[in-house]
Amino acid sequence: ERIVLATNNPKKLAELRRIVAACGLAVEVSGLRDFPAYPEPEETERTFEGNAFLKATAAARETGLVAVADDSGLAVDELNGMPGVRSARWAGPACDDEDNNALLLAQLDGVPPSRRGARFVCALAMVSPDGERRVWHGSMPGHIAEAPAGVNGFGYDPLFVPAGLSVSSAELTAEEKDSISHRGIAVRAFVDYLRGLS
Ligand code: ITT
Ligand code: NA
């Protein structure tokens, strides 16, 4: 069985593949790079779920495969849930992870530890060529550190300290992160669904 993950983010694809593999599921997950380029939809929705369905719908149509899309991001309490669906390109159209992390630290400058709460959220949408539509959600609560630490993971991981821990999610091993992450939770629910089909 082969499914396509509608993403251009190689780190995200690697995490999803690794979580599916850890479940012992014999499903091959292809990224968009394995397919001829198609016009990707603009992420115009205001919710993670809406954007995940935009991406999965386009990928199912273009590839003829069951398509899943992960729309995810960081919601910071003190910033009323920002950057949220804008997490990937918060600091500007051509920004990288470092720019986004610098902006986050600047936005929270002077904000005390008690008000630095945040969560990562993930909506994983599935669209099959025959029109079936499903979505699974996951979240990981925590807080934003005063300085980056760690080199694992991607995105805002160096600044995010998961609840109950004293290290950032970029200091966790892959297995440790997957066991508690927003993506791990959503992908394992998807895997349960696939198992229920067979
Ligand atoms: P695709 O839309 O092509 O999948 P993207 O990176 O643009 O790739 P999103 O729109 O879903 O994907 O934005 C997700 C962003 O949220 C991502 O670029 C990171 O900045 C952040 N993010 C999501 N999950 C994360 C994680 O596990 N660790 C750190 N940052 C994460
Ligand atoms: Na998005």
TrEMBL record:
| Gene3D superfamilies cross-referenced by the UniProt entry | 3.90.950.10
Report residues binding Mg(2+): E42, D71
Q: What is its EC number?
A: 3.6.1.66
- Please list the cofactors this protein needs: Mg(2+)
Q: Its catalytic activity?
A: dITP + H2O = dIMP + diphosphate + H(+); ITP + H2O = IMP + diphosphate + H(+); XTP + H2O = XMP + diphosphate + H(+)
One record GO biological process = purine nucleoside triphosphate catabolic process
- Top enzyme class: hydrolase
Amino-acid positions noted as binding substrate in the UniProt annotation, renumbered to this chain: T7, N8, N9, P10, K11, K12, S72, F154, G155, Y156, D157, K177, H182, R183
**Which SUPFAM superfamilies does the UniProt entry name for this protein?**
ITPase-like
**Record keywords:** Hydrolase, Magnesium, Metal-binding, Nucleotide metabolism, Nucleotide-binding
What the record notes about the co-factor is: Binds 1 Mg(2+) ion per subunit.
Q: Which GO terms describe its molecular function?
A: dITP diphosphatase activity; ITP diphosphatase activity; metal ion binding; nucleotide binding; ribonucleoside triphosphate phosphatase activity; XTP diphosphatase activity
Cellular compartments per GO CC:
cytosol
Relate the assembly described in the record. Answer: Homodimer.
Sum up the protein's function in the record's words.
Answer: Pyrophosphatase that catalyzes the hydrolysis of nucleoside triphosphates to their monophosphate derivatives, with a high preference for the non-canonical purine nucleotides XTP (xanthosine triphosphate), dITP (deoxyinosine triphosphate) and ITP. Seems to function as a house-cleaning enzyme that removes non-canonical purine nucleotides from the nucleotide pool, thus preventing their incorporation into DNA/RNA and avoiding chromosomal lesions.
Q: What is this protein called?
A: dITP/XTP pyrophosphatase
The source organism is: Tessaracoccus defluvii
Q: Which gene encodes it?
A: rdgB
